[in-house]
Specification:
It is built from 14 helices and 13 strands. It is α/β, with parallel strands linked by helices. The strands form four sheets. The chain has a seven-stranded mixed sheet, sandwiched between helices. The longest helix is centred in the last third of the chain and has 33 residues. The termini are far apart. Bound molecules: (2S)-2-hydroxybutanedioic acid (LMR). The site of (2S)-2-hydroxybutanedioic acid has 5 residues, from loops. (2S)-2-hydroxybutanedioic acid binds next to loops.
């Protein structure tokens, strides 16, 4: 039986992680996978997470199962974090943001097997790969303008205008991955107008809340969509903003419809795919969000992380301006979140890797958090050399 298996095409982000690991050079720079790193290259356990873990170790008396949908207190805390208040919603805990995306797509397939799911061009490779694995019809809407490093606003609105009634449109709630380019509030509102007129259903992927313009600002677009549409799906990840990547902590929220029936379907989907969702990370998140002191400390540290990435952005834009003697890369300062797509060719990306030990995804997406004050000018000089 196993001989019938064919090798799978590996995700390009994961291939890059391995290549970086295997590179013996000391002076290599990792701008690949979307994991936050401080100036020393460490992905720290956040202070509030450590404190919650200590407290949990003291008070936890059982490891018996939670509910199929996870702990209702976690789901409620995440609804409040994302939507800003208690909102009646169906929700399930999932293994990370990818788990939420996967369960969301499966829910779409169960409810509307003929619907097309629209994704931005480009989008996170896992989106398209899961959609294709599930056999869901997919279409792309134009999003990024490689010539400016900004959005292709006309193409975006034109393509959203072609969405069929009942189709699902996947939107990055903030910090677009891989480009770093995001709609402003005015464009979000225009996009919502078009989608509402088409009878589309928004599905928001919110993996970086707190990494862009702030915890509240990063949720604004999702809140606006939740207020305007009868039905909205939201897949959220706690991997980045709580720094608990390996704990696999996420949530899928469904607004609208018959809440009890949707909730039952979500719990059923959990049962089919992995039964009970992981609890450790979700419990830490709930403890932090529901405790004033832990929450304040978490928010303060998250804000430090965000400011650090903003400083690196501005620093990179300035270094590139000096190194290339042009404003070609000024867009880096306007992007938000962990990533920016630099607009380099595959060959230039390969030269950066082979000749300079600088690792970025083949589409020239960089993780800003992989930089520090010392490596900023190194990267800028290397880019100036290859372009
Ligand atoms: C990324 O895009 O690098 C992250 O979301 C990590 C991943 O799983 O791809």
């Amino acid at each position: 039986m196993l001989d019938a298996l064919k090798p799978q095409v590996q995700d390009k982000i994961l291939i890059l992680m391995q290549q970086y690991k295997d590179d013996p050079r000391k002076a290599k720079i990792d701008l690949g996978v979307g994991v936050y790193k401080d100036a020393t290259g460490l992905t720290p356990v956040m202070r509030a997470v450590k404190a919650a873990e200590k407290r949990l170790w003291e008070i936890e008396t059982t490891k018996t199962y939670t509910g199929l949908a996870g702990d209702p207190a976690f789901n409620a805390a995440m609804v409040r974090l994302i939507l800003g208040r208690d909102v009646p919603a169906a929700a399930v805990a999932t293994p990370g943001g990818t788990g939420a995306i996967r369960q969301g797509f499966e829910l779409v397939r169960m409810a509307a097997p003929d619907a097309t799911v629209w994704v931005s061009s480009p989008t996170w490779p896992n989106h398209t790969s899961i959609l294709s694995y599930l056999g869901i019809k997919t279409a792309e809407y134009r999003y990024f303008d490689a010539s400016t490093g900004g959005l292709d606003v006309d193409g975006l609105l034109a393509d959203l205008g072609r969405v069929a009634p009942g189709d699902v449109v996947l939107l990055h709630g903030c910090c677009h991955n891989p480009t770093g380019a995001n709609p402003d509030a005015g464009l979000w509102s225009q996009m919502a107008d078009v989608l509402a007129a088409r009878g589309a259903i928004p599905f928001v992927d919110l993996a970086y809340q707190g990494f862009g313009d702030g915890l509240e600002a990063d949720a604004e677009a999702t809140r606006m969509l939740a207020a305007r549409f009868a039905e909205v799906l939201i897949a959220a990840s706690c991997s980045k903003n709580f720094g608990i990547y390996r704990e696999r902590t996420g949530v899928l929220i469904a607004l609208g419809g018959d809440r009890a029936v949707t909730q039952g379907n979500l719990a059923w989907l959990n049962r089919q795919n992995y039964s009970f969702p992981p609890d450790h990370g979700a419990r830490l998140v709930t403890m932090i969000l529901d405790d004033a002191a832990l929450r304040a400390d978490w928010m303060a540290e998250l804000e430090e992380v965000r400011q650090n990435m903003l400083t690196l952005r501005q620093g990179l834009a300035d270094s590139l301006r000096r190194a290339t003697n042009s404003d070609r890369f000024d867009f880096v300062a306007h992007h938000r979140g962990m990533f920016s797509r630099l607009g380099l060719s595959e060959a230039q990306v390969a030269t950066l890797r082979d000749d300079h030990g600088i690792y970025m995804v083949g589409d020239s997406r960089i993780n800003l958090a992989g930089l520090n004050a010392g490596t900023l000018p190194v990267l800028a000089a290397a880019i100036a050399q290859v372009i």
